[in-house]
């Protein structure tokens, strides 16, 4: 915990030192004390934004993760379907799918579901692809060994394929945690009134640099929360990682 | 990859587009739910006079930012590869900053650098720089210690090690960073354009959403995807040429 | 030939609380082929790293090369266990690596390498990349790289360890051939007693950790040597003697 907090504290110290030492124009970088004071003065407002955006991103992220792993397992059972769908999934990773966020908002309106849906598909594709890659990387001899013990398909999946794919699943989850958050924020740009994205937009249009920085910090806090959740889950589930 | 797998992939794509076109027509889906692929293509073609300059602007911003970010990222990584103590202090901070999503500081770039191309180029350079930097540094510092020992036994110094061993050994991970960065460059350009610009595909999308012009949104996404795919394809092809030993 | 090429005296090494190498004393004459054998973890590689100048011996130990003390880095030709060929360089460029680092004129060293490639059975493969070569061939490239680094003392750390038995015995005879032609002083680490005897003028057996020299046996078998030697009675006699010594040490490190 301390190891994670140290670079952040150091960053804040550097920030303050730069503002004071280099006499930076507050239009570019206001003192962190000013930003902190602004956040404290309107703590309810910022807390609301934090919770709204966290809920959108976390909901979509969790669903995306679960459905992603589930569909990878399904595809493993249906190699024909996998071969047909996987290239489309991979191509989807090379195009700016975040732009579809605009369409999703048009579909769902300015609801929590709309942002969660964006976060969902931004998580879903990388998790599916990485899970499949993790399963494909399992040594065929290990599968043969388990089968020789009399394991059925389900047992092979539960006892070998899924655990073996876990490290890669978590790699995808760490990557998509920030993607899901970006998706939620961008989704809020299309007319939302609550959430970090809406706050960022308002601060930008009103040229309120202090509240813009405060919003960035809130965004970082949401990202940090998602990251920490993934890291904790990873440490609990992939304790053997060093041996791989 | 064998032919059957490739054929299945093509079959999948054809089926997807076919099913899309068919269901839109058969169920007479309204445009706001899903326009047919043929309609998207037709809109892109008839709107080409407006889409092309927007696409050119987006490509220009993405490519310039990409080039600047790539050079800075590799350069900084090489400097830090030589300075281990500095690396230990800086790296966690870089990782912390990198975990904040782009969308959060895009408004800052617009305030500071205006709604022209500059703000997008700087944003892209920033993101690409981070990505390439982290990948390059990882590659530069994760060289087989035995290989380092061997070159030292031949009398190689630090600079010589960097040039003859670390840099080529890091090429695969630098290339990976450059490949991932193509897509990120496009995403960042579009996202920053959505926030505020005078021209560009992201701006086209944003305005089309406000005007509830669905076909135009899809057409702009289509064009952006084509640029992105081309960009990705070219960089991957260069990668395979340069990192032939992988 | 009374001069000594290499003189090691009282050399030891601690890693923290672990005593890796106790007190090693060893003199090696110019042109001698010495094989070093001992149980795993007996400090052979530590000793090699010190001879290559990659590691400093603990205080009190001295290593004299050509009778002179001083930094050893870049003064001996070191070949590590794995071939460590750089995959982005072709055969010739891999072999030229040490000359390039030394800053020798390229055209000259290139011509020398092209000539040497014939001796090393790499003719026609100069432009191949390591990943296109067999294990035995890769090892020959690595050896050639070591020979290109023209130092009188060569340190070979289990160069044939990863090869199959057939390739291995071919490579051994071939190495003796090369050695007879180029006349360098060689210290060769191995795990294989047959290999140790077959190659060497002297076999040095090291003890289990902390490493010391347990036995220093001169091998006076006639050269050139061929495969039949392996079944000759004088060979088997030496082998039995060495096996006893090595076995004793292996048991020690096994029960430790």
Give an overview in words.
The complex is a heterotrimer of chains A (244), B (246) and C (256). Chain A is mainly α and 244 residues long. Helix content of chain A is 80%, strand content 0%. Chain A has helices at 2-21, 32-41, 43-77, 79-92, 101-108, 112-136, 140-148, 153-188, 196-205, 209-237. Chain B is an all-alpha fold and 246 residues long. The radius of gyration of chain B is 22 Å and the shape is globular. The two termini of chain B are 16 Å apart. Chain B is built from ten helices and no strands. Chain B has two domains: 1-30; 38-242, MetI-like fold, CATH 1.10.3720.10. With 256 residues, chain C is of the alpha/beta class. Chain C has two domains: 1-76 and 152-200 and 212-256, 3-Layer(aba) Sandwich (Rossmann fold); 83-150, no CATH class. Chain C has a six-stranded mixed sheet with strand order 5-6-7-3-8-9, sandwiched between helices. In chain C, strands 2-1-4 form a three-stranded antiparallel sheet, covered by helices on one side. The N and C termini of chain C lie far apart (42 Å). Chains in contact: A-B, B-C. Chains A and B meet through helix 1, helix 4, helix 5, helix 8 and helix 9 of A and helix 1, helix 4, helix 5, helix 8 and helix 9 of B.
Notable characteristics:
heterotrimer, B: 246 residues, MetI-like fold, 2 domains, C: alpha/beta, Rossmann fold, six-stranded mixed β-sheet, 7 helices, 9 strands
Short description:
The complex is a heterotrimer of chains A (244), B (246) and C (256). Chain B has 246 residues and is mainly α. Chain B contains 10 helices and no strands.
Q: Can you give the helix content of chain A as a percent range? A: over 70%
End-to-end separation of chain A in angstroms reads: 25 Å
Q: Could you tell me the radius of gyration of chain A in angstroms?
A: 22 Å
Low-confidence stretches of chain A: none
Helicity of chain B, as a percent range? over 70%
Tell me the name of the CATH homologous superfamily of chain A: MetI-like
Number of helical segments with 4 or more residues of chain B:
10
Largest sheet of chain B: none
Strand content of chain B: under 5%
Give the CATH topology of chain A: MetI-like fold
First-to-last CA distance of chain B: 16 Å
Order of helices and strands of chain B: HHHHHHHHHH
Strand tally of chain B is 0
- How many E strands of chain A? 0
Overall domain count of chain A: 1
| Beta strand % of chain A | under 5%
CATH class of chain A: Mainly Alpha
- At CATH level 3, the topology of the largest domain in chain B is MetI-like fold
Please, what is the average pLDDT of chain B?
91
